[in-house]
Automatic annotation (TrEMBL), chain A:
Domain of life of the source: Bacteria
Gene3D superfamilies: Rieske [2Fe-2S] iron-sulphur domain (2.102.10.10)
Recorded family membership: Belongs to the Rieske iron-sulfur protein family.
Molecular function terms, GO-annotated: 2 iron, 2 sulfur cluster binding; metal ion binding; monooxygenase activity; oxidoreductase activity, acting on paired donors, with incorporation or reduction of molecular oxygen
Phylogenetic classification of the source organism: Bacteria, Bacillati, Bacillota, Bacilli, Bacillales
Organism: Peribacillus saganii
Name the record gives this protein: Menaquinol:cytochrome c reductase iron-sulfur subunit
SUPFAM superfamilies the record matches: ISP domain
Keywords of the record: 2Fe-2S, Disulfide bond, Electron transport, Iron, Iron-sulfur, Membrane, Metal-binding, Oxidoreductase, Transmembrane, Transmembrane helix, Transport
UniProtKB/TrEMBL annotation, chain B:
Species of the source: Peribacillus saganii
Protein name per its UniProtKB record: DUF2487 family protein
InterPro entries: DUF2487 (IPR019615)
Pfam families: DUF2487
Amino acid sequence: MSKHRVSRRQFLSYTLTGVGGFMAAGMLMPMVRFAVDPVLKASEGGDYVATKQKVDDLTEEPKRVDFTIKQVDAWYESEETQTAWVYKDDKGEIVALSPVCKHLGCAVAWNTDKSNPNHFFCPCHYGLYTKDGANVPGTPPLAGLDVYEHTTKDGILYLGAVKPHKGA
Amino acid sequence: MKWTPNEVDMFLQAKEYVDTALIPLVPVNFAENIKQSASMKDFTEILTLEIERQFKGRIMLLPQLAYLSSWDEPKRLELAADWARGLKEQGFAHVFYITSDSEWRVNEQGLEGSLIWIPSIPLEHLEEKHKRPMIDDQVRQVLAIFTRKWHD
Ligand code: FES
C-alpha cells in the first residue's frame, strides 16, 4: 500500500479543519466588517450637516452651536449631538472650532476661566487655547483645536468634517 | 473614559491624568415601582454618558452598579464602600457615586466616596428636542460639583 494514502482519521481531521476554518472565517468576516464600517462611513466625508444657526446672527464672540448627526454602529442607529464653537473673525470669515480638547478629549468652553478671559478653557487639566484655537504653550494640550469645515446655504450654517488646526 | 477596551488602552497611557472615578448606582425593583426603576436606569445612563463625553480626559466612568431595592442599608453601604476602597487603592484620588435613588441620601456620611444625587427625569415622556437642554442643565450642575472637589 502506498504511504501517501490518507487514513480515514487524517481525512476526517483535514476536512473538519477545513470546514471549521471556513465557518470561523464566515463568522469573523461579518464581525470585522461591522467593526470597520463606522470608520469607513466617517471618512467618506464631504457631507455637511445643517445647524440651526443663522449666519447673520454670528458675531465676533464665540458661540456654542449644537447639531445632530446620525450615527450608525453595528447595533444601533442613534443621533449624536455634536458641538462647535463658532464666530466671525476680524475679516468677517466664519470660524468653527471643535470643542474636543487635544490633550485627552474633555470639552473646552469659551471664557469660563476667570483668570484667563477670552480663551477656550479645558476644565480637566486646565488646558488653554487662544480664540483662533491655537494651544497656549505650557498647558497640557500639544496641538490646536480641530476646525470644522463649513458652508452656508440659505443663510444657515452647515458644518462638515473636522480638520487639524493649521498653526497660528 | 469608558470601560471599553479602546478607552482602557487610553487610560493606561494617561493614568496620571485620570484621577476621578464615577460609579453609577442603579436600583432594581420589580414591585410596584418597576417602571420607575427602569426609567432611573435609563436616565442615569444617558446622564453619565454625557458627563463622560465632556470629561473624558479626567473621569473614568465605571459600569453601572446595580442592586435590589429590597437590600437593607448595611448591605448597600457595604457594596458602595467596597468599590470606593478598591478604586482608591487603584490610585483614584476622587471617587463619586451618582444616583437617582434617594435612599442613598439617608446615610451619606456612611459612604466612602462623594454622593451626587440627581432626581430622575422620566425621559421617555419628553420630546427629543427637550431632552438635550434638560441633560445639559444637569451636566452643568455636576460640573460645578466636580470642579469644586478638584480645586480643594
Ligand atoms: S483634557 Fe483638556 S487639558 Fe487635559
